[in-house]
Amino acid sequence: MLKTAICDLFGIEYPIIQGGMAYLGTAELVSAVSNAGGLGIIGAGNSEPDWVRQQIRLTRQLTDKPFGVNILLMSPFAEQVVDVVLEERVAVVTTGAGNPGVYIPRFKQAGIKVMPVLASVALAKRLERAGVDAVVAEGMESGGHIGEVTTMALVPQVVDGVQIPVVAAGGIGDGRGLAAALALGAQGVQIGTRFVCSEECIAHPGYKQKILQAHERSTVASGQSTGHPLRCLQNRLTRQFEEMEKAGVSKEELESFGMNRYYQGAIEGNLDNGSLIAGQVAGLIKEIKPVRVIIDEMMTEAEAIIAGLKNSYSED
């Protein structure tokens, strides 16, 4: 069985972590991932703290396995969500869209494992010194807010730059991606888009179908001028956003225009004018499956690839 340092760190069976997707990282998906041997992550996003607390407690009713909460540091409720996570004694915290350094001592004092999602070697080194337990190195192939470096280039550089375990993210959706991430030195993978197309995910069926219909060039990184580019499936909204950027519309107007668009796309199913967040791996996903099947197939494929490579090299 394929087991890594990440499995030991979080007390999970497989080195597969579900991305903390806003609105979609609910108890249904989180518990399914944890029950299948991975690490489920509640996506706090911009949700109010009471919703996060409710999801934590509901997840505990559905699984006795470890799970975590992703805190979006740019959320207006970030401070309150931190308080909720501390009060509820969640096993793991992942963070995104910022530097969680100010919160790390409180998490560590409470015995909570901390694993920030980041896109640079410099931040990985800084957060290792601050005491985090692991980091997620997320390449620009991922869905949502992205950095400027690809997974293939970023992961080994982060691995070389820190001593703590590194999890790879961005463009990973099957056993081949898991095996490749391990070859780059990662101790596991974080997956988002593939889990959107799971039976347990509450994403709108139309959104899931759009991912299934995608090809390798179906996504676009919008909002470059805002400093917070967002990768999602191309649609009327992304084209309009691009036109506004070219016309020199201010950052404030662009951010106002994009407000709540992800909820409209992911939950309400507004496929033209909602934001359909997806990574470039969308082109590989062709079927909606139960979470357990997705994870089992990933593990089987990755183990077969690694065994095949070992046999190939041993024969030489």
What does it look like?
This protein has 2 domains: 217 residues, Aldolase class I (TIM Barrel), CATH 3.20.20.70; 59 residues, no CATH class. By secondary structure, the chain is an alpha/beta fold. The mean pLDDT is 91. An 8-stranded parallel sheet has the order 1-9-8-6-5-4-3-2. It has a 3-stranded antiparallel sheet with strand order 7-11-10, with helices on one face. It starts with a helix and ends with a helix. It is built from 14 helices and 11 strands.
Features:
TIM Barrel; alpha/beta; 316 residues; eight-stranded parallel beta sheet; three-stranded antiparallel beta sheet; globular; single chain
- By DSSP (H or I, 4+ residues per run), the number of helices equals 14
Shape: globular
Radius of gyration: 19 Å
CATH architecture level-2 label of the largest domain: Alpha-Beta Barrel
**Count of spatially separate domains:** 2
Hey, roughly how much beta strand do the residues contain?
5-15%
CATH fold call of the largest domain: TIM Barrel
Kindly name the structural category. Answer: alpha/beta
Q: Please tell me the overall pLDDT.
A: 91
Tally of extended strands? 11
Write the element-wise H/E pattern from the N-terminal end onward.
HEHEHEHEHEHEEHEHEHHEEHHHH
Provide the low-confidence segments as ranges.
Answer: none
| CATH H-tier superfamily of the largest domain | Aldolase class I
Lateral arrangement of strands in the main beta sheet: 1-9-8-6-5-4-3-2
Distance between the termini: 25 Å
Taking the sheet with the most strands, its summary is: 8 strands, parallel
Q: What level of helicity do the residues show? A: 40-55%
